[in-house]
TrEMBL record:
It comes from Coniella lustricola. PANTHER family: DUF1479 DOMAIN PROTEIN (AFU_ORTHOLOGUE AFUA_5G09280) (PTHR30613:SF1), UNCHARACTERIZED PROTEIN YBIU-RELATED (PTHR30613). Residues 128-161, 190-215, 240-293 are annotated as: Disordered. It comes from the Eukaryota. This is DUF1479 domain protein. Residues 128-147, 247-266 have a biased composition (Low complexity). Pfam families: Gig2-like.
C-alpha cells in the first residue's frame, strides 16, 4: 500500500521531505507512549548549527536513554494520534527522531514527476499557505505544529513559490476503504475536498460553483471502467458462480468500437449479480484476470456498501460441501440486511 503525488508544476527544492527509515520510525512510534522523560523538555530551540553549546548539551541530556523511564501507570494516549485523523509526528512528541536532521529532501520536482512512498513512511510537504498551527513557531521543537508529518499526514511550511501537486493514494480494497470510498465519491460529486482533506480550517475550498469541473463522464472518458471503479462510480464484477473477480479492459474513449459494443451486448446478460449461480466454464472465456474466493467476498461487500440499492445483502454459504452455493433466506437474512443498511446509512451520513 503506497501513497504519492503527481507534480503538475515545477516545485521548489525540498518541497517534499521523507524519513527513509519506516521500520525504525514505526518501532519508535509504538514504543513512545510507554515512556516519559524524567526531566522537562528544554525550552530553547534545538538547532545543531545555530543553538548555543548550552542548548545542545541540554537537549543531549534530555534525549539520553537514562533520562527516560517506563511509566508505571499506562494510559490510552498515543502521541499525535486522534481517532479519525492521521497520525502526526512532531518534534515535541517525538524528539528522538531528530526531524530536522533525519528528514531527507527529494530533488526538485518537474511537471509530470510522480513520487510514491510507503504509507508508514514519515514525510513532510511544504505548501504555499501555512496551516493555522504553522508559522514562525514551526522551527521550535517545543510546539506540536507542522514541522514534520507522519506517514499518513503532511505538515505545512511556507515556501516562496507556488506548486500544484495531485495526491494519488493506492490502497487495497477492504471494507474500511470501501466505506471511505463512498464518502469520497459523495465529496467528488459535490465538488468538495475529499474526507482526508477537510476544508475546515485549511486553504482548500469547495469547487461546487466551478463551471466545467470533472464528473462521471470525464472519469469514464479518461479512465474507462477501471477509473470508474477506482472512484466508486462503477461496481466490480464477479463470475456467474460468484467465486472469482473479473476484470475486463476499460475503454479509454467515450464511444466504444463496434466490436467492443457487440461484445458488451453479448455479455450484458451476465453482468455481476451478488450471489447468482451459473456455470463457471462460460466465464473462463471472458475472464481476463481472476482473484481468489476471499477477494470475491471482499468485492461483494464493497459493491453492497457502494451500491446498496443495486445489491442485496447476503449470507455466504458453505461452498465446500454445497456446490450450488444456495442463497440463505428467512428472518435472519432480513434482520441482517436491515442492520447492515442502517450501519451503512449511519457511516455515510
Amino acid at each position: 500500500m503506497f501513497q504519492g503525488i503527481l507534480a503538475l508544476t515545477s516545485g521548489e527544492p525540498a518541497s517534499i521531505r521523507v524519513l527513509p527509515s519506516p521500520k525504525l520510525a514505526v518501532a519508535y512510534l509504538l514504543l513512545r507512549p510507554f515512556f516519559s522523560p524524567k526531566t522537562p523538555q528544554p525550552t530553547a530551540g534545538y538547532d545543531e548549527e545555530a543553538a548555543s553549546p548550552e542548548a545542545v548539551a541540554a537537549w543531549d541530556a534530555f534525549l539520553d536513554p537514562d533520562n527516560w523511564e517506563l511509566d508505571e501507570k499506562q494510559s490510552t494516549i498515543i502521541h499525535g494520534a486522534v481517532p479519525g485523523h492521521a497520525q502526526r509526528i512532531t518534534e515535541l512528541w517525538h524528539p528522538h527522531l531528530r526531524l530536522r536532521r533525519s528528514l531527507v529532501e527529494i530533488p526538485t520536482l518537474q511537471a509530470g514527476d510522480y513520487v510514491i512512498w510507503h504509507c508508514d513512511q514519515a514525510y513532510s510537504i511544504m505548501t504555499t499557505t501555512p496551516s493555522p498551527s504553522s508559522g514562525a513557531s514551526t522551527s521550535k521543537p517545543g510546539t506540536p505544529s507542522g514541522t514534520a508529518a507522519p506517514g499518513l499526514a503532511a505538515g505545512s511550511e511556507q515556501t516562496p513559490a507556488p506548486s500544484m501537486l495531485m495526491y494519488t493514494p493506492a490502497c487495497p480494497l477492504t471494507q474500511t476503504n470501501a466505506l471511505f470510498l463512498a464518502r469520497q465519491r459523495k465529496a467528488f460529486m459535490q465538488g468538495q475536498p475529499g474526507p482526508d482533506f477537510d476544508s475546515a480550517g485549511s486553504a482548500m475550498t469547495s469547487e461546487a460553483p466551478h463551471e466545467g469541473r470533472p464528473g462521471r463522464d470525464e472519469i469514464a472518458a479518461v479512465g474507462g471502467d477501471a477509473g470508474l471503479r477506482a472512484m466508486g462510480l462503477a461496481p466490480w464484477e464477479l463470475s456467474r458462480d460468484g467465486n472469482s473477480v473479473m476484470t475486463r479492459p476499460g475503454t479509454r474513449a467515450g464511444t466504444p468500437t463496434p466490436g467492443e459494443q457487440q461484445q458488451h451486448q453479448q455479455h450484458q446478460g451476465d453482468r455481476m449479480e451478488v450471489d447468482s449461480n451459473g456455470e463457471a466454464a462460460a466465464d473462463k472465456r471472458r475472464v481476463r484476470g481472476s482473484g481468489t474466493e476471499g477477494e470475491a467476498e471482499v468485492v461483494r461487500l464493497a459493491n453492497i456498501i457502494l451500491f446498496p440499492d443495486r445489491y442485496d445483502f447476503y449470507i455466504p454459504s458453505e461452498r465446500a460441501g454445497a456446490a450450488s452455493g444456495a442463497r440463505v433466506n428467512g428472518r435472519a437474512q432480513a434482520e441482517q440486511m436491515a442492520a447492515t443498511r442502517q450501519l451503512i446509512s449511519r457511516i455515510l451520513s
